[in-house]
Amino acid sequence: MRFMYKYRTVIALLLCTSLISGCWDREEINDIAFVIGIAVDKESENYRTSLQIALPGQSGSSGSEGGGGGTSGNKSWFMLSTTAKSFRGTSIEGQKALSRRLYYAHRRTLLISEEIAREGVAPMLDLLTRYPLNRFSALPVITRGEAYKVIDTDAPIEKFPSEMVRELCLLNMRNPRSLKTFIDAILSAGVDPFLPIASVEDNAPKNWKDVKTNIKLDGLAIFKKDKLVGMIDKAPGDALILAMGEANAPEVMVKAPSGEGNLFIKLNENNSSLHPSIKNDKVTVNIELYAKGVLVDNESNYGDRRENEILKLNEAIHEKIKSDIEEGVRLVQKKYQSDILGIGRSIHQHLPAEWDKMKDRWDVIYPNVEVKVSPHVIIENVGVINKPIGVIEEDIIHD
User: Fold this and answer.
1) How far apart are CA 129 and CA 126, in angstroms?
2) Structural domain count of the chain
């Protein structure tokens, strides 16, 4: 009886193994094309989509030269560019020209040309978010000129240009704009979207030997809902990021309070908050900015960091930050009438009853909102040397 029980147990286990069929739906890596970045352009009435596809066989080459250059000089990525009447059509056309199945789950950057962004990005966002393999964590970026030229740069320091774009975004902001946050801003009331701008530049003067093309972030793209309405330069763009409390250890150049030259102060910690108020139908918003600073460079003949000189330097950086943020706010509020700071959203959060009264007229009210900036910066460290190096005592200017 005991033998029969063991026999039946063995038979049952053997039958169970027939249900474990292994990787019945497996897909070999050699049958997949991993898309790591995408660039979208407009050509006449057609879309052009350029896919940056990883070549695993080249990625691990020893002695690789950035940009994917391996020992044989081959790139670790392949560009597939196709055109069609619709954004989805470019993917269909691209698959026809590729022997491997396109796989988008590893795509982490999306480059959109300025031309398409001005027309509106809503049509492409539907495809980029509806299909499960398109991840919401991908970082969208607007390009000056054609997007395919940015994704096809040498970018020598990284294996893939698309990866360099991502790293630049991470260095520029604490929480870079992802597809999720970008779409949230499009669909939300009281806030407008913005994205970083990428462009191509040479890594050295053109008359140097072996000049490579590189990528840089140089401003902010300002949107009204899904349409690009303007592009602002890096300096006011950085000030606006600081006003949002999203700056990643920025450096502020301050003119010396006395004497000649400039000082550079790095803000290692910074955060901000918006405080709206309404009086006699007049909307006012105060931007409270808090930061801790470190003096990293003194290219002036000012002071030896006495107490009253530190106070003067504090006043100078307060005025500089206030002026820079006010310039950025003036651009987005008066010129482009885009609420990228989320002033309307702050009213919704702090004064919901008042927001209900004005939300339908916010586009008219917003340009006339009074925005005040109140920086609070503490300079915690002036370095190991007090006096400006190379300046004799007689030439140092004191307050």
Assistant:
1) 6
2) 2
